[in-house]
Amino acid sequence: MPAVEMKPDIYWVGVNDRTTDLFEGLWPVADTGVSYNTYLINDEKKVIIDLVKAIKTDAFFDQIHAVMPLSEIDYVIINHMEPDHTGVLKTLHKIAPDITLVGTEKMKQMLAHYYGITDPVRVVRDGETLTLGRKTLQFFEAPFIHWPETMVTWEQTQKVLFPCDAFGSYGALRGTIFDDECLEPEFYIREALRYYVNIVARFSQPVLKAIEKLSGLDIQMIAPSHGLIWRKDPARIIDYYRNWAELAQGGGDKGITLLYGSMYGNTEAVMDAIAQGLACSGITIEIFDVARIHTSYILPALWIHKGVMVGAPTYEGRLFPPMAQALDMAVLKKIQNKKAAYFGSYGWSGGALRQVKSMMEPMQWDFRNIFEFQGGIEGDVLKKAEAFGREFSSDVQSE
After folding, report:
1. Domain boundaries, the chain
2. Which of 224, 252, 273, 370 could tie 168 with a disulfide, CB 3.0–4.6 Å?
């Protein structure tokens, strides 16, 4: 996409990435792509805000050159040091070594460790301003959204917030950069939730602190480093992030995330019967086969639904390994205080339930509902499973 003027003398000069399979080497984006949004301010002093991943170096420099020669740039604002925002920095510094890099004290320290660059660097403090001519930038520290050096940049004249990873989403830009021109806004909301839970969720308290810190600003446009630019209703994405951050303490809507894994089909058959019992009550259900669906897609459902059902067999005296991996990621992302149930089969001895409870104890998942069966699905196992589903649905909806 060519450069786009967002406000007078403020340009989007980012790039789309549709070739990276795994964001952060972990989260699938092959189907959605991702954008690296960079911004250029053309004033008496010329400024780039955030950069792009190293694999997009040529495309990025072409974007800058479409607006002005790279040699005219005075400052690069580094809101966040992660390499998807700074990957071109070493090359940029070799081409234009006089550009001043602006960021927090922690950014300066990390800059030396990542790229061996120590000068020219300008450290800014919380609330400090930088006058460009007609426009003025103000910087607010926002540590742990989602690294300790993070800050956000506020352009006072045009009232544009550049928050880097905050308020971002997966998803390459599809012909437009703005929310009000996008024909699929719900796609970006869904991908913003996945992005939030994958990347930011562990740091939900800092998110709420940052939202509170910025609440006095008259924000008319939010320009994150990934996903849509919000100009029609910037409060919408702030509200989503606030609501998601508040779920860090647990709770959620009266829906159920049903996770299952099955070795030979017995646990899966029981899962289907349980799902039938759940569906009879009209509750929202999301079902995931943990051996086949990446945790990137499971985590958002765990985050927003109050109820969780864990269905997995005992495997060599322990929990079925793909389920253990999924739950371990839930622990890493601090998905807490869920109303939970366990079901699963065992051959000659149990063990899965004990491990599930041990893993989730720090997260305070309340396992009141248990349904274990030995061997296959003989007798009235499926009938009991359906009743188990109805019972758990009633428990979730009653609280």
Report:
1. 4-248, 257-394
2. 224
> Judging by beta carbons within 10 Å of its beta carbon (0-12, 13-18, 19+), is residue 240 exposed, middle or buried?
middle
Q: Give the tens place of pLDDT for each residue, 170-197.
A: 999 999 999 999 999 999 999 999 999 9
Three-class SS of residue 361? helix
Q: What's the helix, strand, coil split of the chain in %, to 5?
A: 40, 25, 35
Two structure tokens written together for 313: 């067999």
pLDDT tens profile 11-70: 999 999 999 999 999 999 999 999 999 999 999 999 999 999 999 999 999 999 999 999
Are the CB atoms for 342 and 320 separated by under 8 Å? no
Identical fold, 4-248 and 257-394: no
Contacts of 114 (CB under 8 A, 6+ apart): 81, 83, 86
CATH number of 4-248: 3.60.15.10
Tokens of 132: 């460009």
The one-character DSSP state at 99 is: P
CA atoms within 13 A on the CB side of 270: 33
How is residue 97 written in tokens?
Answer: 């070594």
CA distance 17 to 29: 9
Name the CATH superfamily, with its identifier, for domain 257-394: Flavodoxin domain (3.40.50.360)
Measured N-to-C along each axis, helices 185-195 and 234-246 cross at an angle, to the nearest 10 degrees, of 30
Looking at 68-125, list the stretches that DSSP marks H as alpha helix, in order from N- to C-terminal side: 83-86, 89-95, 105-115
